Amino acid sequence: MTALLEVRGLVKQFPIKTGLFGRPKSFVSAVDGLDFDLHEGETLGLVGESGCGKSTTARLLMHLVDPTAGTIRFEGRTVGSSELPLKDFRRQVQMVFQDSYASLNPRLTVAESVAFGPLVHGVSGDEATSRANSLLARVGLDPARFAGRFTHELSGGQRQRVNIARALALQPRVLILDEAVSALDKSVEAQVLNLLLDLKEEFRLTYLFISHDLEVVRFMATRVLVMYLGRVAELGLTESLYTGSRHPYTTALLGSLLSMDPDHRAESAPISGDPPNPIDPPAGCRFHTRCTYAEAVCSARIPVLTPLGEGHSVSCHMSEPGSGHARAPGRAA
Amino acid sequence: MSAILAGEPAPVPIVRSPGYWVTVLRRFSRDPFAVIAALVVLGLIAMAVFAPWLAPQDPLQGMSLRRLRPPGSEGYPLGTDELGRDMLSRLIYGARISLFMGIVPVFAALVVGATIGIVAGYVGGWTNTVLMRTMDVFFAFPSVLLAVALAGALGPGILNSMLALTLVFVPPIARVAESVTTGVRTRDYVEAAKASGAGAFIIIRKQVLGNVLGPIFVYAMSLIAVCMILASGLSFLGLGVKPPMPDWGLMLNTLRTAIYTQPLLCALPGLMIFITSISFNLMTDGLRSAMDIKA
Amino acid sequence: MFTYAAKRILMTLPIMIGVSLVCFLLVHLAPGDPLISVLPPDASQSIKDQLMVLYGFDRPYYEQFLRWLVRAVQGDLGTSIRTGRPVAGEIFKAVGNTLMIATLATFIGFVLGTFFGFVAGYFRGTWLDKGASAAAVFGVSVPHYWLGMILVIVFSVHLGWLPPTGAGPGGSEDWRWNWVHIQHLILPAVTMSVIPMGIIARTVRALVAEILSQEFIAGLRAKGLPEFGVFRHVVKNVAPTSLAVMGIQLGYLLGGSILIETVFSWPGTGLLLNDAIFQRDLPLLQGTILVLAMFFVALNLAVDVFQSALDPRIQRA
């Protein structure tokens, strides 16, 4: 499978201003060394707790913020360079935001919001409007009734459909869905998810699906990437990850899912403690403060993302050969 | 490639929601005070425009023999001033200059201040800091002091005081513009517009201005009353309009000498200023409430 | 809190320098001969030249500015061209007079404004609200110099109760704390108080209405707290902002007293400013504007620090 997006060593630091002239005294590393590929035609799920850097990653991929370090390549060309100017890149990768209300301009009608993108890229007014109308129809909103409405006259689900239509207006190849269904009621969520699946098939899109809801991700994604404090914890095909997770964090996350089976009751919370302060992250493996298997080496060295075969990788000393961890493979018994 | 354009263009939408300003107008019309105030303002503007047809006599011609006649005198419904000129005519003509000096500086300040504020708010960073700190320096002066100092420095005259007043009102408008624009800039829909590949100019024009100009405009309108009072105050001090032009503030100055003999004459020009000011204030209050749609 | 205060003071320094620069530019970029008030028009060129050197008007602008600034920081604001007396002394005397009416006016305005604001906010939507709000709008819309004249007409001309002008009988400038002198104080102070009254009333009304609509008030009442207890909570929440507004209003009155003082011939900084402008007395003009502006800046700073002391959230912002 061809890699549409290649991310290498992505880092984003935000300064915390406390100096007298605004000189930053310390940094938050929202994203601290991210490596992954997005393959054509797949749905890559991106999961993690709040504050792990998911939304920052989305904005970095969309080039709405500049990375502190690292590269992002689309179809092998560096984004923002002469090979691939930013404006052309924008036509390839689009995003659906989490807050459906805030992401629509309250002064524009629905059709005007959807038509904005094509207008910017030189499409004529009439053409843009008709494109907007047919997209609205495609996402399930009858243009005759909805195109002239304003944001405050729509329900949450309807607004998200508008956002999806808007994202599709530029005919992109990749759609980044940043917690796109998190704020919706369950029944509406199901409808929108099914719509997304239909659209993906019809227009042959590639999705990056960001969510904190593991059940939804399992439903939507073909591959899953688990993030913890700005780094990759685990990455692999959905089923192999959900049934055979190798990172203690992933296991804990999955363990926190409530089972439908009344006989399966969790005895104790699978994970303890709060996520540590991103301003002052733990040394070595970021997770070691909450990990039941932590050993000395975990606080000394950052684990490397180790491939385990069949596209499954994990960054944990327990799976890294020769890391020095008691459970690491390759140690002489 | 995706084939999103399959099918014929969809029909024109049938449902058209009322626009923002129509809603605002409807809400405004439900407040009786605001409506009355607006009518008074329109009346005053009409009076200024149609002054030559409304005023019974020449405001500049007076006869010393007839000076300081009280209101209700024959031929002079509101009396005469210290040079024998008809008060009614002078009050009517006075509306021209007084309204002019109250409204024009505010609008000039609106243009300059809004540009500064919007640019500072949208671009952020160093530009913002430099622009806003400069505004802060002028903000450090109380408005009356600044107006008087500027007018005093430039010298008396209508143009000079209008320039002074414009400079006084640019910083507050710029501040409001900057804060509103900064608020809008961080909104998701602006990010979404950027994500669509739009450049700064297009985003400002199509996405930001519509949300930003409303509040800035209303704020500027609320300054008109203050500007009028300040402008008349400058004329009252002798720094604005020069005699023999009819201006309510100047009339207050020249009629002061008659405060013991004909107090009612003294009071009339100020009454006009008061009526104008309170009507503008009530009108803009109503406008602000009407625009506060928690949609 | 002290670090916050220190930081704020540091941040105000560039503004103060900017203010003094604007002050200087305002006065010196004005057209006209700076010596016009002292010299008769037919004075010889050599006398003119001598006086120019004496006052330093022949030096380049930046040099004049720096000299003036350095001396000003030490308290020497130059000599008035017209009277020959030190500027600082004139201003000092005048400031005292202005402060008298300004503080009294602010106090009256605060008391009345808070009263109206609370009435309007508590009885929102009723005719009490309309009445109180009307008072507030009145305060903000009335041209205060005109109001001063009206009060003079009513209380001096018609009723003869209060003197129309001056700070003392016969226009004397010496102040004594006796009834005769206090009579002179009343009209200017009351006239000045309407604007702060209006602004404070509006602010308080909005604050009270907003606080009363918040859920924690409903929670307090549900707990059984008597209405007076709720009232105390409202007062606690309203106090910081309203006191801050009062402080700023004092600054405005200090700086903007010229109109009222002209109406009442009150010997304060406003009247001094008026004289300085019309006599083109540059050192006096510069000094007065500078002192008034600095007062305002200092007051703003004080209000800022005061607010942050009461509301710790501001410090972290």
Task: Describe what this molecule looks like in 3D.
Chain A is α/β, with parallel strands linked by helices and 333 residues long. Chain A has a domain at 3-228: Rossmann fold (3-Layer(aba) Sandwich). Chain A is built from eleven helices and twelve strands. Chain A has helices at residues 54-61, 86-92, 110-120, 125-138, 143-146, 156-168, 186-203, 214-220, 238-243, 248-255, 296-300, and strands spanning 3-17, 24-39, 43-47, 69-74, 77-78, 93-96, 174-178, 206-211, 223-228, 231-237, 306-307, 313-314. In chain A, the strands form two sheets. Chain A has an eight-stranded mixed β-sheet with strand order 6-7-8-3-9-10-12-11, sandwiched between helices. In chain A, strands 2-1-4-5 form a four-stranded antiparallel β-sheet, covered by helices on one side. The longest helix of chain A is centred in the middle third of the chain and has 18 residues, at 186-203. With 295 residues, chain B is mainly α. The model of chain B is unreliable at 1-8 (pLDDT under 50). The longest helix of chain B is centred in the middle third of the chain and has 37 residues, at 87-123. Chain B has helices spanning 20-28, 32-49, 51-54, 87-123, 125-139, 143-154, 158-185, 188-195, 200-222, 224-237, 248-254, 263-291. In chain B, helix 2 crosses helix 12. Chain C is an all-alpha fold and 317 residues long. Helices cover 75% and strands 0% of the residues of chain C. In chain C, helix 4 (87-122) runs antiparallel to helix 5, helix 4 (87-122) crosses helix 7 (179-212) and helix 4 (87-122) crosses helix 11 (269-278). Chain C starts with a helix and ends with a helix. The interface between A and B is large, with 55 and 34 residues.
Low-pLDDT ranges of chain B: 1-8
Radius of gyration of chain A: 21 Å
Beta content of chain A: 15-25%
Count of extended strands of chain B:
0
**Residue share in helices of chain B?**
55-70%
The count of strands of chain A amounts to 12
Q: Note the overall shape of chain A.
A: globular
CATH class annotation of the domain at 3-228 in chain A = Alpha Beta
Rg measurement of chain B, Å: 24 Å
Main beta sheet of chain B: strand number and arrangement?
A: none
